[in-house]
Specification:
The protein is an alpha+beta fold. Helix content is 23%, strand content 33%. It has helices at residues 23-35, 56-64, 182-186, 213-217, 246-277, and strands spanning 3-9, 13-19, 39-50, 94-101, 107-110, 115-116, 129-133, 138-148, 159-172, 192-194, 200-202, 225-240. Strands 1-2-12-9 form a 4-stranded antiparallel sheet. It has a 4-stranded antiparallel sheet with strand order 3-8-4-6, with helices on one face. Strands 5-7 form a two-stranded antiparallel sheet. Helix 1 (23-35) packs across helix 5 (246-277). The protein is flat and about 80 Å long. The chain starts with a strand and ends with a helix.
């Protein structure tokens, strides 16, 4: 049976252990989070005035990579919106205005200068530098944000980190281990420690990186300590860019996985029915 144990969690990151799955399923979840969970990003820009040193294309690229808060409940994916318009509508597009001028002194344009029509689709941080303007230079533009997926462009990836690793398993042969402590000294993560009785014990199992240096330095042959990864248990670490709470990202990924499985089973059923008739 699959089970989940949350190790650490805040609004932007989560670490958890999943038991009872295979590596292929763990990788499927990782890939869905990276490439399928939608989020907002600037995709179209109408530049009215740009006197800065950045070409329009470079300015557009910088704006597109600014993470935007995402409201999945209020906006549709462009391909799923009823408007069917290339320009989009208020249900599939959000507008942000940038109108900044450097008067007598140099001025750095920050993401906080992007004024959103919808406050729910605003830059995650207002301190992201966009461009520096010399005195007299000005930028005026309208930026249009829409939902997209990471498989289309990296700017639509909702996470800055999404990794998993095997849950470590460490076995110590207490009969053969003489408690020399060499394995304790070589471990960079301080996974092992010596008890009051002088025996080697496991103190920080989840910190183990499976480097197996402790096995290499053990003077016993074969080593009195064995380290391996559990093939059916994985430690996940997911960190959001701030566009969505990390818990919402994981929930959306599971919904997408469930939908893909249902579609696959439906198509398989249709194929089997056709084959039986033939």
């Amino acid at each position: 049976m699959m089970s989940v144990q949350i190790l650490e969690k805040d609004e932007d990151s989560m670490s958890f252990v999943v038991n009872g799955i295979t590596a292929s399923l763990a990788n499927t979840l990782r890939r869905i989070i990276l490439s399928e969970v939608p989020c907002m990003a600037i995709d179209d820009i109408m530049i009215i005035e740009n006197d800065s040193v950045l070409h329009d294309e470079v300015l557009g690229l910088r704006l597109g990579l600014i993470p935007l808060k995402t409201d999945l409940d209020s906006y549709n994916l462009p391909e799923e919106c009823e408007c069917k318009s290339e320009l989009g509508c208020h249900l599939c597009r959000a507008v942000l205005i940038l109108d900044v001028e450097a008067e007598s002194d140099e001025r750095t344009v920050y993401s906080k200068d992007l004024v959103p029509e919808d406050p729910n689709v605003a830059p995650v941080s207002g301190e992201i530098p966009i461009v520096k303007l010399a005195p007299g230079q000005r930028i005026r533009l309208e930026a249009y944000a829409k939902l997209g997926r990471g498989k289309e462009h990296a700017k639509w990836q909702p996470v800055s980190a999404c990794i998993y690793r095997y849950l470590p398993e460490i076995k110590i042969d207490s009969e053969r281990c003489d408690g020399c402590g060499v394995c304790i000294d070589v471990c960079p993560r301080r996974v092992l420690a010596k008890s009051e009785e002088g025996k080697i014990e496991i103190k920080r199992l989840l910190e183990c990186t499976l480097c197996k240096d402790c096995m290499t330095v053990c003077p016993k042959d074969p080593p009195a300590i064995e380290v391996q990864g559990n093939q059916n248990s994985f430690i996940f670490y997911v960190e959001s860019t701030g566009v969505l709470p990390v818990e919402r990202i994981i929930r959306e990924a599971l919904k997408i996985y469930e939908r893909k499985c249902s579609e696959f089973l439906e198509q398989l059923s249709v194929k089997l029915n056709v084959s039986e008739k033939d």
